[in-house]
Amino acid sequence: MPLRIFPNKTHFDFMGKRWIGFIVSIALTLASIGLVATKGLNLGIDFTGGILMEIHTEQPAELGPMRELLNAQSFGEISLQNMGSASDVMIRIQVSKEDNQAAIIEKVKGLLAANVQQKVDYRKIDYVGPTVGNELIRAGTWAVLLSFASIMMYVWFRFEWQYGVGAILALLHDSVMIIGFFAITRYEFGLTALAAILTIIGYSINDSVVIYDRIRENMRRFKKMPMADLLNLSINDTLSRTILTASTTLLAALSLFIFGGDVIKGFSAAMAFGVIVGTYSSVYISAPTLIYLNLRPDLAAQQEAKAA
């Protein structure tokens, strides 16, 4: 016999608790917007333009003297922080488009060689111009907006317009949550953060479509069932699949977070958080929204009869 971790039939009253879900979502959405407005995002050099250097020293690096040394050169805004260990340091230097970035990198190397009394290994050196950064911001914004539009059109044509509205509300909720996550954790928000948002959008809509498919199937079978009861039945029918999919994806994201190193730590943390948020929004945002958009089993049956 196959191993069953979860029972086939559950009877959780999700729609009875939908107002709690709405209140939690609204509170977290407002908190995320407030965090972004007050604290802002820790924008990476992909968007701001500048120089990123990752160095490794034989002994723990003294960030204080190193910061004073570089700040005295008037390079621009400089930030130093450890990455994982006291011997690994990330140096970020914001520069203007008039600055010669190659010359600044060579000068920083010379200063560190002359003043740091230990060997310095350069693990990574990146630099992006401010103009390129602005172009990446525009391109990233368009990528997210176009993905929203494409998903809404797909759901609209596959189901009904009500499903498309519910799906977009859930995706907007997920995107705001992830941006708020970056604002509070201060992980660098760059192209990898956009990749995380787009990946979670794809994961979340897949979860919603699975539930939507079962809702449509049950609407054909139970034409007189109240909409809230039908949604509860559909979500419970797919709950085992939802939990197993979310669990395995979450394990993969956590493995990347633990073993993937500092380079993808922000991406993997956002993925883990996004899987939880995406699963939650599929149940408490995209599904209950259908109740308030006048989608009823009897109306769906009439529409199908007319189309036939």
How are the elements arranged and paired?
Elements: H1 18-38, H2 45-48, E1 50-57, H3 63-71, E2 78-83, E3 85-93, H4 101-115, E4 120-128, H5 130-158, H6 161-185, H7 191-221, H8 227-237, H9 239-259, H10 265-286, H11 297-307
Antiparallel strand pairs: 1-3, 1-4, 2-3
Describe the structure.
With 308 residues, the protein is α+β, with helices and mostly antiparallel strands. The chain has 2 domains: 15-43 and 133-307, Multidrug efflux transporter AcrB transmembrane fold (Up-down Bundle), CATH 1.20.1640.10; 50-128, 2-Layer Sandwich (Alpha-Beta Plaits). It is 65% helix and 10% strand. It has helices spanning 18-38, 45-48, 63-71, 101-115, 130-158, 161-185, 191-221, 227-237, 239-259, 265-286, 297-307, and strands at residues 50-57, 78-83, 85-93, 120-128. A 4-stranded antiparallel β-sheet has the order 2-3-1-4. The chain is elongated. The mean pLDDT is 81.
